[in-house]
Amino acid sequence: MTTTVAVLGSTGSIGTQALDVVRGEPDRYRVAALGAWSSVELLADQAREFRPEVVALGDPARAGELRALVPSATEVVAGQDALTSVAGHADVVLNAVVGFAGLPITLATLEAGHRLALANKESLIAGGPVVQRARAGGGGEIVPVDSEHCALHQCLRAGGDHEVARLVLTASGGPFRGRSGADLAEVTVDDALAHPTWSMGPKITVDSSTLMNKGLEVIEAHELFAVAYDRIEVVVHPQSVVHSMVEFSDGATLAQLSLPDMRLPIAYALAWPERSGIPFGAIDWARLARLDFEAPDADAFPCLGLAYEAGRAGGSAPAWLNAANEVAVDAFLAGRIPWSLIAEVLKSALAEHDGTPLDDVEAVIEVDRRARELTTKIVERSVTA
Ligand code: NAD
Ligand code: MG
Questions:
Q1: How far is the CA of 15 from the centre of ligand 1 (A)?
Q2: Separation of CA 131 from chain center
Q3: Of the CATH numbers 3.90.226.10, 3.40.50.720, 3.40.50.2000, 3.40.50.360, which one belongs to the domain with range 3-144?
Q4: C-alpha distances in angstroms, 15 versus 97, 116, 313, 376?
Q5: Which CATH number fits domain 314-385: 1.10.1740.10, 1.10.230.10, 3.40.50.300, 3.40.190.10?
Q6: Mutate to test the pocket of ligand 1, among 86, 98, 244, 266 (most ligand atoms within 8 A of CB)
Q7: Consecutive sets of 10 residues in the chain, 385 residues long: mean pLDDT of each?
Q8: What residues does the ion ligand 2 have nearby, CB within 5 Å?
Q9: 146 in ligand 1 pocket by Cβ < 6 Å?
Q10: DSSP three-state, residue 143
Q11: What pTM was estimated for this model as a whole?
């Protein structure tokens, strides 16, 4: 049986690695749809290689260019809703878009009752209650692509939900591990983008440098596995070999170990409930020598605590924090604010969060819009200060 796959965000770090997985098991998968924002040349190359039925482009201005480059049998759809419109075209939809823009894809996939291979954590974090309703009502399922949650998903197979004592998420610590607050005042965009163990898109790489990525992942774990925040912990593990752990009621801890290669969790989500046949590198135990673990530095990296705070507050707080973070990271990447101000901006933004019930997707979009507007003002104020 061939599994049809829609790869949305196909030109990014996760998207291109997903196509590598498909290349590795060509009899198992067929690419039914591809989608990206505006990288027309790469998207057209991918369309010529994988021959999907449909290719979606977010940026409508470049649709003509794309049409001229793809095979004549390939349909091109373009515009704001284009990627979402193809989400029903496959057995498995990989949501590898970055940021809040991924929310409609997550919802459409779950509502259509398909399997969602979820890399786009922002949609689950911001849309929490609305995504859960679509998940329960539409008959779709989420299989996480984030390496930590993929590890938890694997470990959780060893026991029942009521037997879970603790989830322990590992964090590489990012490029600034071991540095103090004062030491971090002068770091540059290039410093923040130089991740020690993973090569990823710019937004998540900056999130890894502030530990906001781990904070978002704590909320993601809570949403995916319905475990209370008091029972979700973070430990820094610089080698990125232990991808996360589950402690059970009898004190037994199960961990998932593998070399740091995102293709493994991507392949896991595509092949679920089976396992991928591609060997993504074996650990050489004798050479591995050691695995280190240490507590995260909450003073130097306050974003982790802010995420716990927003997660525990629940309701619209995670959506508020997520939107504020996207604005702050964009401002940092554009050179408008220093790295050390990202957490300050988020603290100020969270202080003004007023709590709105998230009854429907419109409410989520409105919270996201208001948080962006406020955070943009906070950034302006700090730029002129
Ligand atoms: P990236 O920046 O490399 O790629 C993003 C992709 O999304 C591109 O194909 C781009 O064209 C598309 N895109 C961007 N904005 C869009 C929009 N508004 N509408 C439609 N498409 C849009 O990002 P990435 O590193 O591949 O990350 C993708 C997602 O996966 C993020 O949510 C990230 O947190 C998550 N993730 C990534 C990694 C990793 O190793 N890169 C690991 C874990 C989780
Ligand atoms: Mg991760």
A1: 8
A2: 15
A3: 3.40.50.720
A4: 8, 14, 33, 30
A5: 1.10.1740.10
A6: 98
A7: 97 98 98 98 98 98 97 96 93 98 98 97 98 94 98 97 98 94 91 90 96 98 98 97 98 97 98 96 92 96 98 97 98 96 98 93 98 98 84
A8: 146-148
A9: yes
A10: strand
A11: 0.98
